[in-house]
C-alpha cells in the first residue's frame, strides 16, 4: 500500500501561506487530495491483485468469425455465469505457467491502454494539478517576495502598535459626538451673552444626561522595545512596497498557472469522456500461441473493470468541479482590476486619510488576503500611514526623552534666558511642553515640526529658535505666541521657507532671519510684509540680498536695531535706510561695501555703526558722521583701510572706535582730540609708532595695540590715568617704561610676544593689576621682585 503522505512534498507549503489561498484554491486543494486518493487506490489494486484472467476458447478455428466472448457480451451476468458453468466441465490441459503467460500476454496486447493505465494517469494528472497550484510558492522569483510579505504581514498583524493605533482611532470616533455636543452647548452659552449666562448653564446641565457615555477601547501601552520594533516594521514595509510595486511577476505567474490548469482540465475531460467506455468486464484476446498452449483465442475477464469504471466516473466528476473553480478563478482575474488596491474603506473606517493606494504585485497580494480575511489588510494599512508612523515616532520620542532627561539639558543662554536646546531629533517630544519654566526653546535640524496644543503650557516662553527646522503652527496657538513670544530666530536654506505665521506675531520684539534668496530673486530681495510686527525693535537678516528689502520700511517707525549680514554679496541699494528715523544700531557686515554709505549719515538717532568685513579702503566720509550727533560706537574693523583722515577730530562724542584688522601704519595726531573716546582698538595692523597726542585721551579705558610692529611707546601714553586694559602683545617692544606704574586703574596688561628682557618693578604700583591679568612669559614674571609678585598674587 502506498501512503498518501509520500505525495505531500509535491504540494507542501508553509502554514503561513494559507493567507494567500482564497476559497477556490482551498476547494481545489481538497479536490486534488480526493483525486489523488482515487489514483493511489487504483494503483494499489493494480499492484496487489490479478489484473486479468483468461480462458481459452474451444470454438473450432473455422467458427471463429466472431471475436471470442462476443456471444457473452449482450447477455446478462446471470447468463454469463450459466455459460461459464456449462464450460466448467471442459478440460483445457494447461498448467499454471501457461495460464500466467496467457494472462500477461493478453493484458499487454488485448486490454485497452486507458483501462490499463487509468489509475496511473489519475495520479500523474493530480500531481500536475498540485504543482500548478503551488508553483508560485516554489518559484524563486515569486517565493522570495511571498515569504517576505507573509513575514511582514504577520508581524504587522501581531504588533502592539497596530492595536494601539486602531484603538486610538476608535477612541477618537467615540469621542467626536460628545465633543461636538459640548462645543454646541458652549457656543450657545457664549451667544446668549452675560445676561443669559444662567440660562446657558441651565441648558448645559440639562444637556448632560443626553450624552452617550462610551468608553473607548483600552489602549495598550508600548514599552521602548516594542516601539523600536514597530519603527523597524515601518521601514521594512516602505522598502518592501517600493520593491514589490515595481513589477507584476506574482500576478502574471498566478494567471499562467491558472490558464495551465484550465487547459489541463479541458484535455483530461475530453479524453476521459472518450475513453471511459473502453473499460469493459470481458475482453476478447487473439494471440498466436497455439504452438505453446494449443489455443489462439481466449476470453478474458478484467477483474477491476467494474471498480475502475465507477472510479473513472467519480474522477471525472471531481475534475469537472475542479474545472469550474478554475474558470471562476479566471473570471475573477480578468474582470477585476487586481493590479490596483484601494484602501478607501479602511480610510473611512479608521480616519487615517493618508493611507496610500497600492499597485501591481502589492495590490494583487492584498486582494488575495481579502479573500481570506479583510482584517489583515486593515491592520497592515496602519503601517502604510504616515500619520501612524509619526504617532509612533512621537511615542518613541516620549519614551526616550523623559521630563527628567530634558530638565537636565536646561541652561542659561547668552541672553540670560533658561533655554532648552534640542538638535537632530526625528521629532519634538511631547514632554517638552511639561517644562513650564522654559524661557527659550532652541530646535535645530528637526524635520516637520507641528506644534501641539501643549505649547500653551510654556507660559514663560519668550524666545524661539528654529534652525533648519520647518514648523507648522495651528491657528489656535498663534494667539498664544503673539502674546508671549518676544524673540524668534529662523535659519533655513532659502528665505521663502520661513513660516508665514512668523510675520503675524504682533508682540514680537526681535526677528532674526538667516537664509538665501534664490539667485533670480536676490537682486529684488523681496521679503514678506512686516506690517503686523507693531512692536519689532530688532531685525537681523543674514542672506545674499542685492538691496535692503523694501519691507524693512514697514517697521521704520519703531525699529531700533538693523543687522544685515550679506555673506560677501554686494549690497547696492541702501537709500531705504534713510527712512529708519529711530534706528539706533546698524550693522552692515560682509556687504561688499567700498565706501561708507551716504544713507547712514541721515540717521540722526544712530548710536552704533558696524561695517565689519567689507572692502573699505578710504574713510574720508568720516567727517559726515558729525551729523550723527548720538554716534558713540564706530566699528570699521576687518577692512582694508590704509589711513585715518585728520578730520576724525570732529567725532568728539565718539566713545568706541574699532579699527583692528586693517592696513594702518600710522595714526593721525588729531585722534587725540577725540576726548570722549573710551575704547580704541587698532590691533592687527602695521603700526610702527604711536603719536604722543594719544596721551590726551583722558577718558580712555581700553587700548588694544596687539599684533603690530611697535618698538617704543611714547611716555605720554601713560598719562591716560583711567586706562584699565592695555594690550601690547606680539609687537617688537624691547622695554616697558617705568611710568607704567602711573596707571593705578590698570587691571589687564598683555606683553607676550615682545623682546622684553625685564619688567619694571613699578608694575607693583598698579594696584588693580593681579597675576591673572598680567599676560607675560613666565621668565619675565619670575624676574619681578618677590614683594611685587606677592602683591599681585593676593586676590
Automatic annotation (TrEMBL):
GO cellular component: endoplasmic reticulum membrane; lysosomal membrane; monoatomic ion channel complex; plasma membrane
Chain ranges passing through the membrane: 27-47, 117-137, 312-335
Biological-process GO terms, alphabetical: aspartate transmembrane transport; cell volume homeostasis; cellular response to osmotic stress; cyclic-GMP-AMP transmembrane import across plasma membrane
Locations listed in the record: Cell membrane; Endoplasmic reticulum membrane; Lysosome membrane
One Gene Ontology molecular-function label: volume-sensitive anion channel activity
Start and end residues of each LRRC8 pannexin-like TM region domain: 1-330
InterPro entries: Leu-rich_rpt, Leu-rich_rpt_typical-subtyp, LRR_dom_sf, LRR_domain-containing, LRRC8_Pannexin-like
Family matches, as Pfam families: LRR_8, Pannexin_like
PANTHER family the record matches: PTHR48051, VOLUME-REGULATED ANION CHANNEL SUBUNIT LRRC8E (PTHR48051:SF58)
Name listed for the protein in its UniProt record: Volume-regulated anion channel subunit LRRC8E
UniProt source species: Balaenoptera musculus (Blue whale)
